[in-house]
Structure formats: C-alpha cells, structure tokens
Amino acid sequence: MAHDPNAAPVPDRSHDRVGDRYARELERHLDWLDSFTSTALGVLSAASGIYTYLGVRTLLDDPGLWTTFAALAYSIAVSVGIFVFWSYMLRLLPAVRSAASRVGLLLTMALGSVAIVAMSSWLNAAALAGTAAVETHMAATVQTYQTSLERAHANAVAGQALSRDVARVRQSFADLSEQEAGGTLSGFSGRGAVFRVLTQKGAELQALEDQLLAAEAPIEETFAQGNTILSRMRGTSVEPGPLEDRTVRFSEDAVQLAGLITQLRQLNPAPLVGRAAQDLADAVVLPELDGSTEATRAGQSSTITSVLSLVEQRATTLAQAATEVMSLPQVDEALYTPMSAADAVIAYAGNFVPAWAGAIAIDLLPAVLVFIIMVVQAAIRSGRGEGHSDERMTVGELRAALAASDLLRQIDAAPPAAADTSRREG
Question: Are residues 328 and 185 in the same domain?
C-alpha cells in the first residue's frame, strides 16, 4: 500500500497508555488505603482524646461526677474535632488544583494545627510526662532551698567569726589596762580613771564576744535541721506513691525550711557587731579624775583622750568588718509554689522534648497523610494529563449504563410504528 505524503501523521498513543496505566495503578492503591484510612484516623483521634482526658483531670481538683463528665465531654469534643478537621484536609486539599486554593487550604491546615496543639497536645504532654515534670519542679525547688540555706549559713558563720576581731580588740584593751595598773601607760600606777575607762571598754567587748560565741551553737543546730529537711524533701520528690500526697508533704517541709532560713538570717550577728561598734565609740562614761596632784590629773586626762581616740579607731575597724559581712550576697527569697502537671510540663518543656514530640505527633500525624495523598494525586494527574476527566464508574453505574444501552438497541431495532408506540408510552 502506497504511503500518502500529504496524510496527517498518526499520533503516538503509547505514552498516554503508559501514563493511564500508571495512574490507574496509583488509584487502585489509593482505593485500598482509603478503605482503612478513616479507621486509622479515628484511632488516632480517640487516643488523643484519652490522653487529653487524663491531662484535663490533672487540672481539675474536684473528683466528683460533674468533674469527670466535664473532662470526658472535653476529650470527646477534641477527638471529634481532630477527626473532622483531618477528614476535611484528607479529602479536600489533595483534590484542589489551583494554586490559590492550595495556599488557602494549607494556611487553614496550619491554623487548625495550632488550634489542635493549643487544645490537646499540651494536655497530652501533661498526661505523658506530668508526674515527671512535677518531680522536676520539686527537685529544682530543693536546689533553690539548698542554695539559700547554705548562703544563709555562710553569712551567719561569717558574722559569728567576727568574735575573733572582737576578742583581738578586747585583748588590746586588757593589755592596756594591765600596763596602766603597772604605771607604764600614764606614768602613774594604780587603778585610777584611765584604768577604769580601759576596763569599761574591755567589759563591753567581753559581753559582745560572749554573745557572738553563744550564737555558734544555734547557727549550727539550725543548719543541721535545715539539711535534715532538705534530705526529706529530696526523698519526697522521687519516692513512689500518689503525687498529691507527696506534694502536700513537700509543701509542709518547704514552709518549715523557709522558716529555718529566715531564722539563720536573724542569727547572723554582723548587725549586732555593727551597732556595738557604734556604741563603743559613742557611749563612754568618763570617770572623775582621781589624781592627787594637778600634774597627775593632767596626765590622766591626756591618757584618757588617747584612749578614747584608740577606742574610736578600734570601733571603726569592727564596724568595717561587720559591714563587709553584711555586704555579702544576701539569701534569695526561697518560695515553693505548687504546680499542676500541665503547668509543670510547660514550665520545664525543655526537659521533656520526647514527651512533647509524642504529644504533638499523635495530633499532627495526619498532616503527613495529607501531603502523601497530595503527591499521589499530582502523580495521577501527571500520568493522565491535566485535561483528562475521571471516567471511573461504580458497579451500579455500570449496570445502569448497560441496561440503558440494551434499551436503546431494542428501540433502534423495533419497526417505526412500534417505536412511535414505545415513545408515546415512554
């Protein structure tokens, strides 16, 4: 047979047939997957609802019937909302073709995901890691209280250590009084006016030293009691048992420990030393000069003036030492605030990244299915061509089409008169 050079070229349909077979294969896979996708989505929604219920119960203190009903209603609403939302996304987002529609639905999906995290995921995290988060809060509180207790004890010990400075100053006055008694200070031996001034200040310093030494035992006793409570609080934070009972006992110990820290701050004798140093220089009772001659009394007056100058110097030294102690870093206010499991999970979110990841994943996993279906639908359209319309028919539609085809063939094969009669009857 001769080839006509003017004839139109016959289009190659092999590529279209391959693309159509590829598209039909993907459609068969989607049909099979669609048979259980809704069930899987329902299971994920129900699981999220269960953990949401457990998370809500941690926020509600009343164990009554209405509380249970409220938590159950909220969890059911969350499950239904998650199921409906992702069902919409699974059906509609892969089906739209225009860029504007896709962008709009993607923004809607992002907004819905944020809403799901806000109403469900954080409660799921509370159910997964709530107890551990509260225990972490207890451990952090114990660390804070330990720091405060140790700092209060260190400040109190530093204040009590001022007793050595006081003893040194007292000893200097005692030595001077002995010198005065021997006549080597003012030049006149005996226990006259100068001696009495020196012994007066020595007695004041001795009383202050006794007070500082007496503070040592209460400081150490209070510190030991605080360490005992800290040890008990550490045990409470990790021991097994109902969390609510442990939280109550932990709170009681925290209140007691806060009182001991305050007591240690009050036992710090540094302010006492500062006030005593001020009184040492200001409160001086001058005795009457008892010299037998004018020269003796003049010597006593001159020596007393020197002694008072020395007293002022020693008082300044003690006041500076007390100021240095009081300028040490002060104790931070330690206060234990009980937290619910949900609040603790948020406050210590960085410590529970796996729990947060699992809580969010169980709610947002269907987003991965949405993107998978979008990719597959795009592949199907690419295989068939964008202009191809879906001609798949159900079994019922195929039967109806065959019945209509048989009826048309019968009408075409009938005589004209019978056909007219058939049309009128129709």
Answer: yes
> How many domains are there within the chain?
3
In a domain, 6, yes or no: no
What is the pTM for the complete model shown? 0.67
Structural domain including 367 reads 14-129+353-387
As a whole number of angstroms, the distance between CA 193 and CA 180 comes to 10
Predicted confidence (pLDDT) per residue in 322-378, tens digit: 888 888 888 777 788 888 887 888 888 888 888 888 888 888 889 998 898 888 888
- Shared domain for 194 and 278, answered yes or no, is yes
Do the domain assignments include residue 292?
yes
CA distance 318 to 159: 11
List the alpha helices (DSSP H) in 327-340: none
pLDDT in tens, 236-290: 888 887 888 888 899 999 999 998 988 888 888 888 888 877 766 655 544 555 5
101 located within any domain: yes
**CB distance 131 to 355 below 8 Å:** no
